[in-house]
Amino acid sequence: MDNSVERTAAELAELIGVPVPHSSRARRELEAAGYLECTHTMGQVKFFRLGEAATARQIVVPLLNRPTG
Questions:
Q1: Which strands form 36-42's sheet, in the order they lie side by side?
Q2: What are the pLDDT digits (tens) for 9-22?
Q3: Which of 2, 23, 27, 54 has a CB 3.0–4.6 Å from the CB of 50, allowing a cystine?
Q4: Can you tell me the mean pLDDT for 38-64?
């Protein structure tokens, strides 16, 4: 993910050929499903990259469950 290409929501809408207001619902659904990940915001502009579901790579390593006692 070091060489990821970040896209704004407006750029993503243009890529899929729909107006920005119509793409926001689809974008939220893709984000919830793990296909998109919001990396940061600048003002009201959100920046996205492909998420774990789209890349088949785990970005965060899960913690091991160790018994305590």
A1: 7-8, 45-50, 36-42
A2: 788 788 888 888 88
A3: 54
A4: 76
